[in-house]
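I am still learning, so would you mind making up any protein sequence you like and the C-alpha cells describing how it folds?
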Amino acid sequence: MAVPITAKIVGVEVVAAQKAEVVSGGPSPEPVSSPKMVAEVVQLQPVLRRPDDLEGTTYKIKTPLSEHALYVTINDILVNGKRRPFEIFINSKNMDNFAWIVALTRVLSAVFRHGGDATFLVEEMRSVFDPRGGYFKPGGKYMPSLVAEIGECIERHLTKIGMIPPVDLSPELLAKRQAVGEKGMLGNALCPKCGQMAMARLDGCDTCLECGYSKCG
C-alpha cells in the first residue's frame, strides 16, 4: 500500500528481511515490528601461536625406494599443560619427491596449529596405497606407500606424547606372531581391516599379525 509523504525527510532507513538497520542518523518512524531472528555464530578454534622455542623429536625413515633416508621432525607445543604437535618438517637428500613432501608438511602443520583433534591423520595417511606397489620394512612389516610410513611415524609420536593410547597386544596375538616367526612365515595378503600386508595362515585360519583380525576357513 502506498503511503504519501507529508513531512520533511530527515533520515534514511534500509529495511531488509527480518531486520532493520539505520544507515544515517536522524529521527525516523519505528519500523514495522517483525519476529526477531538471532543468528547462531559458530566460532572456529583459534590458530595456536608459535613460541620462540619448541621441543621436538626427529625420526629416521629408511625405505628401499631410495638410498637416502627421510628425517621427520615433529615439534610440540604445551596446551593446558599437555604436549600436542605444532609443526612437522621432512628432509632428505633425495629431491625426487620434494614438491609433494613440502605440500604435505604445510598441510599437516596447518592442521596441527588449529588445535583440534589431529589423530585422524594417522588413519587417513596409513590408508594411502602407492599404485606402483609398497615395500617391506626390516622385520617383514609391509608398508603400502611412503605416505603410509610417514603416517605411522606420526602415530608413534602421538603415542609417545599421550594423544593416542599405546597398542595393547593380546597374549593370543603375541603367541601367533611368535609362531609365525618360528616357522619363518610372513604375511602375504592384505588385511581387510587394517590394510596391512600381514595376513598369515595359522591353524586353518587367515590371521592378521598386525591387528589380530581373523577369518577362519
User: Anything to note?
Assistant: The first strand starts at residue 13 and ends at 16.
